[in-house]
Specification:
By secondary structure, the protein is mainly beta. The strands form three sheets. Strands 8, 9, 10, 11, 12 and 13 form a six-stranded antiparallel sheet that branches. It has a five-stranded antiparallel sheet with strand order 1-7-3-5-4, with no helix packed on it. It has a two-stranded antiparallel ribbon with strand order 2-6. β11 and β12 form a beta hairpin.
């Protein structure tokens, strides 16, 4: 019997769904942001380069409470949306797609993405290391608040070693964000009218989690947290 080196055993175990930590990695990401006054709004969404079985995670938000499409292009699945409650509380939404093979960066046209003309921000990240034989979305949570300096999004995971990716958005372009933990991927003003932040964090254990961000001044927020399931 040939002995297997300890390091190699760990790689084999992870690829077969055993313990040893998460291999979920953000390989690259791209942003689409613009101002458009046509309605309904068709958007050429920037898509990053991918390898086979990478998961494309898309977050979108605007400077108001318009709801994005419930019928995305073929291959995409809408995870959820958190509706805003007024023009000062934005709507955010999340979608995912599995890459069937390696592909260079490109654009995809999403017809009637929004029902109205918008100032919009769309982020797409390519994640490797997600489960292959089933949906990569282990769980998700969402929430909004009308006025607060601290904003939290709850999510209850069922699997260890998930990567929780969270978006929070506000129509106040004067604020910045500080996350309680995790890695901040985005903290930016878009179109001089709204602000968005995106964070990711590996959760080694399953159960109830809370993704919390503090703004530099009280504002209204909407947010979604998506827990990606590892191989």
């Amino acid at each position: 019997m040939t002995a297997i080196p300890n390091g190699l055993f760990g790689v084999i175990a992870r690829k077969n769904g055993a313990g040893g930590g998460s291999d979920i990695t953000l390989e690259t990401s791209v942003v689409t942001t613009a101002t458009s006054y046509s309605a309904p709004l068709n958007i050429d969404v920037n898509i990053p380069a991918v390898s086979a079985n990478d998961i494309l995670l898309l977050f979108c938000t605007t400077n108001d409470y318009s709801e994005p499409t419930a019928s995305p292009p073929s291959g995409w699945t809408k995870i959820t949306e958190q509706d805003g409650t007024s023009t000062s509380v934005p709507t955010v939404a999340a979608y995912w797609k599995r890459a069937s093979g390696s592909a260079s960066a490109t654009t995809e046209t999403w017809s009637a993405f929004y029902p109205n003309g918008e100032l919009y921000y769309i982020w797409v990240g390519a994640y490797s290391g997600c489960v292959i034989g089933s949906s990569p979305v282990d769980a998700y949570g969402q929430d909004n608040v009308g006025y607060s300096a601290t904003f939290s999004v709850p999510v209850s995971t069922t699997t260890a070693d998930t990567k929780i990716v969270t978006i929070a958005s506000s129509t106040n372009p004067l604020i910045t964000f500080t996350w309680a933990d995790g890695t901040e991927l985005v903290d930016t003003v878009f179109r001089s009218a709204a602000v968005v932040t995106i964070n990711e964090k590996l959760e080694a254990t399953s159960g109830s989690k809370t993704r919390t961000v503090t703004a530099s001044s009280p504002s209204a927020f909407s947010g979604i947290a998506v827990a990606l399931k590892p191989v």
